[in-house]
Each structure stands twice: as C-alpha cells, then as structure tokens.
Specification:
237 residues; Rossmann fold; 7-stranded parallel β-sheet; 15% strand; binds NADP nicotinamide-adenine-dinucleotide phosphate
C-alpha cells in the first residue's frame, strides 16, 4: 500500500490502536500528525505531534492548522480518539463520552473538510466498534456514541462523495492489544466466553485495525464510500 506524498491526521495516536495506525501509515509512506493529551517523543519519520484535549475547539483548529503549515496538505483524517465509560452512567459520564466520541469527531472533521476536498482524494476513516452492530451489557453509552459516528460516516459519504472525499468506518470487535478494552478482557475468560463466537478463532489486533485503515486510505478503496466494516473475525456473520 503506497501512501507516499499523502498526509494524515490520526487522533488518539499517543497510545494503543491509534499509535499502531500512525506507525503503519508512515510505513506506507504517509506523513502523519499525531494527537492526544499526553506528550509523546515523536520518533516516527515525517511526523508532527499536536497535544491537547480534542474536545477543545482551539486544539482541533491547531491540529488542522499545524498539519497544513508543516506538510502543506491534508489527505487522510482518522477519527480514532475515544473513551469508554465504566459502571453506572452519570450525566457527567454521558457528556464526557459524547463530547469526545461524537462531538469532537464531528467538529474536527468539519474543520478538516475544506483541506480534504482540496486534496482531490480526501479520506475520512472513523474507528468505531462492533458494538454498534451487536450490543453487550454495559455498552449503551459508548456504543450509542459510536452509532452516531456510524451515522456520520454515511451522511458525510453522501455529502462529500461528489467532492472527491470518501468516508468509511472500521468497527473492530475486542482488540487483544487495545488498552481501552483491557479491563473487559481481564474480566473475561477469553478462550471460553469469547473465542467460541468468533469464527476466525482469535481476537482482533491493533495491526488488523491499522491494516484496514491503511487500505481505506489508499487508492484501492476509492470506490468504497459510506461503508461500515465489521472487523470481528466473522462474529456478526
Ligand atoms: N480496544 C478495543 O478493544 C477496541 C474495540 C473496538 C473499538 N475500539 C476503538 O479503537 C479506538 C482506539 O482504542 P484503544 O483501545 O487504542 O483506546 P485507548 O488506548 O484508550 O486510546 C485512546 C486514545 O485517545 C486519546 N484520548 C483520550 N481522550 C482524549 C481527549 N479528551 N483528547 C484527545 N485525545 C484523547 C488517548 O490519548 P491521551 O490519553 O494521550 O489523550 C489515546 O491515544 C477507539 O476509537 C475505540 O473506541 C477499541
């Protein structure tokens, strides 16, 4: 997959799946803006780091402006940053989860859209969850916030397809090296309770997610638009 000359923003790339996505995109030749609240060393080639809370409008503006100042263009936006709530949902939890998973992704994408249109082959790739397709107890808030993102995937695909922009989503099941699901994985007997329902016989990896994101970012995915891809080893098949 050759992304030489392409420029990407990956949100939530200081850790976990986002960090693997950012590294995989640079290995394919892209330049990448890495974002998150933690400061990272920035040891990837052709990369710049923009720190801050994505729920803050100024941070979102700075991410887009720094990308354009540094690399001169923007072709790929990966909306990966997200948060999962634990336990009973308070109104504060609701606002925190929706503010990042839905609202921040909405407004960052709106801020990035003019540059993605100028690119001529702009791509928005939303990292969602299989929980929007198959629910589980305790996932109501997180899954519904991601369902809003799935809806945006389709809406933006319709709205911006004729402007050369493609908008798609990858919806992973439990990711074995995804920090967000570590508490859930620890509470489960994976071999007995999870793997029997996954025809592929294993959990997803961050590398699986990054491979699909990289494909969606590349020229081979030009005719995919508004698609929600279940990355679940066949669990929902
Ligand atoms: N792990 C799984 O099993 C799994 C399954 C399905 C889907 N997913 C999806 O995959 C994506 C990545 O998951 P993950 O397991 O890698 O999660 P994670 O390790 O918790 O990563 C979340 C990323 O988002 C950043 N972030 C969190 N709050 C932020 C904020 N307010 N402003 C800016 N950045 C913020 C974090 O960086 P800082 O802490 O530096 O801010 C981190 O880089 C998420 O969209 C998740 O919903 C994960």
């Amino acid at each position: 997959m050759d992304l030489t000359g392409k420029v990407a923003i990956v949100t939530g790339a200081t850790d976990g799946i986002g960090a693997v996505i950012a590294r995989t995109l640079t290995e394919a030749g892209a330049a990448v803006t890495i974002t998150g609240r933690r400061t990272v060393a920035g040891d990837l080639p052709r990369s710049v780091f923009v720190g801050g809370d994505l729920t803050d409008r100024d941070v979102r503006q700075r991410i887009v402006a720094t990308t354009l100042d540094t690399f001169g263009r923007l072709d790929i936006l990966v909306n990966n940053a997200a948060v999962h709530n634990r336990g009973p949902v308070t109104e504060q939890d609701f606002d925190r989860v929706v503010a990042l998973n839905y609202r921040a992704a909405f407004f960052l994408t709106e801020a990035a859209m003019p540059a993605l249109i100028t690119s001529g082959s702009g791509r928005v790739i939303n990292v969602s969850t299989i929980g929007t397709i198959k629910s589980y107890a305790g996932g109501a808030l997180y899954n519904s916030s991601k369902a809003a993102l799935d809806s945006l995937t389709r809406s933006w695909a319709s709205e911006h397809g004729h402007q050369g922009v493609r908008v798609n989503a990858v919806n992973p099941g439990l990711v074995q090296d995804g920090p967000m699901s570590a508490p859930k994985r620890a509470a489960l007997d994976i071999a007995r309770q999870v793997l029997p329902s996954i025809p592929a016989g294993r959990l997803a990896t961050a590398a699986d997610v990054a491979a699909v994101v990289t494909f969606l970012a590349g020229p081979g995915a030009d005719y995919l638009n508004g698609v929600i891809i279940p990355l679940d080893g066949g669990a929902t098949a």
